[in-house]
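(Structure overview)
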Amino acid sequence: MVAGPSWPVILHHDGLVLRPLRARDAGRWAELRTANRDWTGPWDSTLPPGSGEEPLDFPRLVRRYRRLGREGSALGWALALSEDGRTGGRALGRAPMIGQVTVAGITRGAAQLASIGYWVDERHAGRGHTPRAVAMAADFCFDVVGLHRLEICICPENGPSHRVVAKLGWRYEGLRPRYLHIAGHWCDHDVYVRTAEERPPHGELARLLSRAGRPSDKP
């Protein structure tokens, strides 16, 4: 499932691909964000007044994730589909993007934790792509990165994201009031957690596929 021992890393399973964002994704990324403004816009993070930062354009976003990936502090993947079924390195790297999965805030030391965020094109929603992608990312974080705790933080009103964690079966930990700045406001977030001790015996992806009645032995 892993193509390469260190960043950049490509993960794939049965035509679903997690590959690093690349500069040539700019047009597709802009197209998806425009087409999904009503679908993802209400849940987009924003910079609060006084943050001291400026919004990143796509080239700078790619460079930032490339640097953070090499540092081991964040993993920025394009969620893509290999529609022709080819699984060679170059074919996977060119798979068309349909969304994004990000492992952010990787913290070492005594914590060994990170958070996972995601979005997907509405036209591809409801097909099981997002739970499978998150499961792939989580297995990589536990098995390869060596993390102990992963979180998914969701606005209470974000029904589609809640359905993703319901399929994954992560533990609800509680509400964090005014946790993140979303769409121009400080918003509460529901927090879902998986620790290494709570993982299914064969991993997140195997559990998800088993519950869906699908085989898990494809690369």
About this structure: Residues 129-145 form the longest helix (17 residues).
